[in-house]
Amino acid sequence: MNATHKIQPARRTENVTYAVRDVVVLAQQVAASGREMLYLNIGDPNLFDFATPDHVVEATAKAMRDNRNGYAPSTGIPAAVSAIARDAERNHITNIQDIFVTTGASEAIDICLTALVNAGENVLTPTPGYPLYTALLAKLEAQEVPYYLEEANGWQPDLDDIASKINSKTRAIVLINPNNPTGSVCDRKTLEGILELARKHNIVIFADEIYDKLILGGGKHISIASLDPSYPMVTFNGMSKAYVAPGFRIGWGIVSGDKARVGDYVEAINKLLRARLSANHPEQYAIAPALDGDQSHLTVLKQKLSRRRDISVQMLNDIPGVSCVPPTGAFYAFPKLTIEQEDELFVRELIKATGVVTVHGSGFGQRPGTKHFRIVFLPPEEILKKAYRLIGEFIGQFAGVTA
């Protein structure tokens, strides 16, 4: 064999991209030049003035001291599973057939897609939407079929567009609610419309609800699984956002619906869970204290986020060439750009010229002909204000930039 023969990667990796992290490469190069960087690109609250609640940290530390450092049950420790069930009941999710703890909500999504979708089949995903689904479906050699969110309607899913894209090979529809990257929250009418389409075509609903406790401005989150206990759904959640613990890598999935319909699917999920042994063990002891314990940190968290959201929307809408639909959940906004150039070029040049790091809207998907960028409004107010002033100064100069 030729010692210089190159190892060829699998074709399934060719379409795997992750815009949120990809911009970091350029940001690191710019930072190396000594420029001050303002990071509005990563949804990690621990990078800013937010901390994991003490009782959550202590529960994990105690588990480690108690030597809960071996393997856990493949579906999660009983105390964690019971706490997740209680939290689901508070969200009016019933007829639960299985609950499993995973290495972040991302692993739960990966396992559930893998257990459901064959090569050549397709899954409907929101656009704009989280790029994890694009990467996972590429790995599975399945087709991603994007459906649009309507910017003019507060980024609600476009039901007519969804209906037009379902076909005989559609296995599931993904609902990210609250949505990343737009910060929108689905209203009941929209949820009922999605449920009706799913019923008509017998497709599974994947409800990604990782931001369900971060509703801003006094709004309300409705779990779609609460609207029909009999229909097959998987609801995803975790510790990362509401409990300020993304590094714990603890998430979970909840399968609900009639047992006769989901039983074989649940067993397929559990085959994959058993094959990978278990999620992080000691961190699972923090799930019950987090979900059942003191929730006062959420009040402070939402107060800060509401103020930062308001500053973001006002300052972005004051910039000529930028418009921003106010987000009602999570900690993201997805401003629209009125520019000739592509939004990816805008983001790259913005980083180089100002040190402000955002993510191009095309990395999340968007309607053809539109251009956006995603901002994370987790940073303190003074950082956000400085970043938006720099964006405002830059956008006027950007008109002369060519690719």
Give a verbal description of the structure.
With 403 residues, the protein is of the alpha/beta class. It has two domains: 144 residues, Alpha-Beta Complex (Aspartate Aminotransferase, domain 1); 233 residues, Type I PLP-dependent aspartate aminotransferase-like (Major domain) (Aspartate Aminotransferase, domain 2, 3-Layer(aba) Sandwich), CATH 3.40.640.10. Helix content is 38%, strand content 16%. The protein has twelve helices and 15 strands. An eight-stranded mixed sheet has the order 2-9-8-7-6-3-4-5, sandwiched between helices. Strands 11-15-14 form a three-stranded antiparallel sheet. A two-stranded parallel sheet has the order 1-13. The model has no long low-confidence stretch (mean pLDDT 95).
